[in-house]
Amino acid sequence: MPGLQVLVVEDEEDIQELLSYNLIKEGYRVTCVERGEEGLETTKSDPPDLIVLDLMLPGMDGLEVCRLLKSDARTRQIPVIILTAKGEEEDIIAGFDAGADDYVTKPFSPRVLSARVAANLRRKAILAPDADTVIRYHELIIHPGRHEVLVENKSVTLTHTEFRILHYLASRPGWVFTRNQIVRAVHGEDYPVTGRSIDVQIAALRKKLKSAGKYIETVRGVGYKLGE
Fold first, then answer.
1. What is the pTM of this model?
2. CATH code for 5-127?
3. Is the dihedral of CA 152, 155, 176, 220 positive or negative?
4. Could you report the per-residue pLDDT of 35-44, keeping only the tens digit for each?
5. Can you give the residue ranges of every domain in the chain?
């Protein structure tokens, strides 16, 4: 996707240079900053098409940067790829809970990262929710364009990942989706996320939805659906 802008938020100069070289070779325009605060300021003043974000940054860490980006209506649709040395399952789950669209651990293959960048940009273009299509299901209202969920006309605050899971289930009420289908729909192919993380996110989603949480039904041995 030549000409698209990628923002790299990374404090290690050699990794900045490696990323810039490979992404520019693929036809992207690349901007690099070293601090999380700079990443937020740059994103708001000149929004990129995608962000590659380190977690361990001086000042504000990458998780907080990601949370702030995904909680802001002006920036939440920008794909964020976390690039970090932190590769434990708990770290990966925390990254996705913060709203990350992808998670790549160091050391990494520049060619694989470039492929992840391209895949996330394609998914953004193809799977972006229709901003005008409001889903109404009993007392539950989902407004993709506003990234807003209402239960009995009261606003519910969800993480980026929780919202995408709910929107996916609500797009086909009654259909049963496996955990792997949910992972692929929300995060794409080949993501290092286990079924357990989906179970954890579903449990948190039910709790936040309160009375409407009962509509997310567990289909034993298969997955989940939005039912009665």
1. 0.64
2. 3.40.50.2300
3. negative
4. 999 999 999 8
5. 5-127, 135-226
